[in-house]
Write a structure and sequence with these properties.
By secondary structure, the protein is α+β, with helices and mostly antiparallel strands. The chain folds into four domains: about 5-60, Roll (Ubiquitin-like (UB roll)), CATH 3.10.20.30; about 65-240, Threonyl-trna Synthetase, Chain A, domain 2 (Threonyl-tRNA Synthetase, Chain A, domain 2); about 265-295 and about 335-535, BirA Bifunctional Protein, domain 2, CATH 3.30.930; about 550-640, Rossmann fold (3-Layer(aba) Sandwich). It is about 35% helix and about 25% strand. The strands form eight sheets. It has an eight-stranded mixed sheet, with helices on both faces. The chain has a five-stranded mixed sheet with strand order 2-1-5-3-4, covered by helices on one side. Helix 4 packs antiparallel against helix 5 (about 155-165), helix 7 crosses helix 15 (about 525-535) and helix 12 (about 390-415) packs across helix 13 (about 440-455). The longest helix has 22 residues, at about 65-85. The N and C termini lie far apart (about 70 Å). The chain binds one RNA strand of 76 nucleotides through strand 11, strand 12, strand 20, strand 24 and helix 15.
Amino acid sequence: MSEISINIKGIGEHTFSPGITPLEIKNQIKGIQKNSIICKVDGDLIDLSSKISKSCEIQFLDAQSKEGHSVLLHSTAHLMAQAVKRLFPKTKVTIGPYLENRFYYDFDVETPFTEDDLVKIEDEMLKISSEDLEIIHEVKSREEAIKYFDKIDENYKVEIINDLDKDEILKTYSQGEFTDLCRGPHVHSTGEIKHFKLLSSSAAYWRGDEKNQTLQRVYGTSFQNPKDLKKYLNQLEEQKKRDHRKIGKELDLFFFDDEVGPGLPLWTPSGTVLIDQLEALAKEKETAGGYLRVRTPHLTKGDLFSKSGHLDHYMSSMFSPMDVDGIDYYMKPMNCPYHHKIFANTPKSYRDLPYRISEYGTCYRYEKSGELFGLMRVRSMQMNDGHIYCTAEQFKEEFINVCNLYMEYFKIFGIDKYEMRLSLHDPKGLGDKFINNPKLWKKTEDDVRNALKGAKLKFVESVGDAAFYGPKIDVQVWSSIGREFTLATNQVDFAIPERFDLTYTDKDGSAKTPLCIHRAPLGTHERFIGFLIEHFGGNFPLWLAPKQVTILPVSDKFNDYAEEIKKDLMSKGIRISLDNRSEKIGSKIRDAEMQKINIMVIVGEKEVENKTLTIRRRFIKEQKELSLDDFSNEILSEINERRVSN
RNA sequence: GCCUGCGUAGCUCAGUAGGUAGAGCACUUCGUUGGUAACGAAGAGGUCACCGGUUCAAUCCCGGUCGUAGGCUCCA
């Protein structure tokens, strides 16, 4: 057989006998990075032990590359599974994929893992690593694979194989006594996996279905380099410090009370400042965008929600009804039905469209107890809600304007890590989860997709995440501990206008049905503020900060001067406090820093004499001396511009 | 809702082979009047989440409830 030519990326062409493996190439050819753990042949990731039969291009990768790292993570999941099987032989393995910087493996075990168990598993993993077991892959026929996994009593694996496509190539990976069904590829020996850490264990359902068996999921992380592992673990610690639940407590922004109920936040004066600022921002932008503001009740007769479809499609997220004079009343889970009522209250002409109305309407949703999460997931929420009623011709522009509005907001806050997601219906849920009208779904989804493409907005698509009444654009963000949330949303509703018999009189005098766009560019106060707390780590920009300025007299002797300054700044609308305790200046500064107050105004003998203030900004030691007027002018313009720096 | 862990002063946390509890910070008072991240002293504070059970005795052991954490599922 003739030789084959392999172009090694970064090295050059070499000839080999067919059947050569990347591992052999790595050992033979000088200059290939020693820490390569996997390779790509003509763009496909393959095991280092795979045989190469024809000329190709090969690229060796270490775990610094995203693909290399994901292989390492995946292989670490297998290593963990092997350790678990050694320690708890009755365990049945299921699946163990990699995520970004993490992996997990789901196990069916008799008793859930304790923290001690995780330590034991980790120790066993280190042991297997030092055994340096070769990881061998084999292609198996369907029958062979089923027979094998059946024999070793791994029924989940058998179930997986039975569900795979008939022409799927089945592979097993073996390391020592442990064999797993897997697509691979994997690193070539357990000795390659050295620097890992198990992070947590929790429950998960088999195949993500709550009707199925509860499995134990163990999360972990793994790196090639101990420094990278340390860095990642530090990063996780740092992220925990930004957790809005922690900062919310430290800065006294909001809290939950057992006697009030879970998921029902109480906003303190400081937290309420954040709400007020957001609301002022929304009001300003919406007024400029042609919205009219409205107000609607929190409680309503069931008939309205029956008409809107909520009782059919949304009941599981609604609080149980209360009986009022023999009639069922519900807390509102959304504001839309009221806005439709307002639209319909007076006759509309084509001249009234687009008709845009908005409010910060408080909604109440029954979220299952285990789903509650700080401010990010609550049961009472103040929604930056609004509805646009427009003609088909106006739709595209209106829809994109909403997208632009939330981009504008994001710019104000400096939010740049988000993902726009076009959420589509899942045909399987029609009639139950979604309104049953396949044609309208298709048309509306196409319209939205085209509008987005026309505006050159980047987005991903997600099937099954639509609202029950129409497709939507969700803006996804991540909390500091990595959970994903929808921050803003922009939704189309093709069903409601008809259900509510909403019409307008067109130019020709005929009655037409408008399109309806639901939108919540700032989401809800709860989630948006929860997100902002983490985004800023509690260090709010001046315009948003609950405590903008504090005056720190050097000693009691200057309290009167401080009081004058306080009065002046307060009259200008600045959120100001005065620390007149008999404490040393250093102590007052420390307390102000801990409270993350933006600006400290220090006054002592010098300032009283000069009629000035000494200004010290949060985290900045350098100070400057200013007159009261110069100072207030300076910060007022910073506030009015909603500047984000510091 | 499901699985597991956790619940001690306003906050962060000690503690008890079962004999009703302690620190630091914060708070109040007194002294100190101090120039850039903690001045000193004293005082006040708790049905040890709640309800039952076992026990002479429960904060501790057992059961239940509620809350909470990590996930799963679900969502703004």
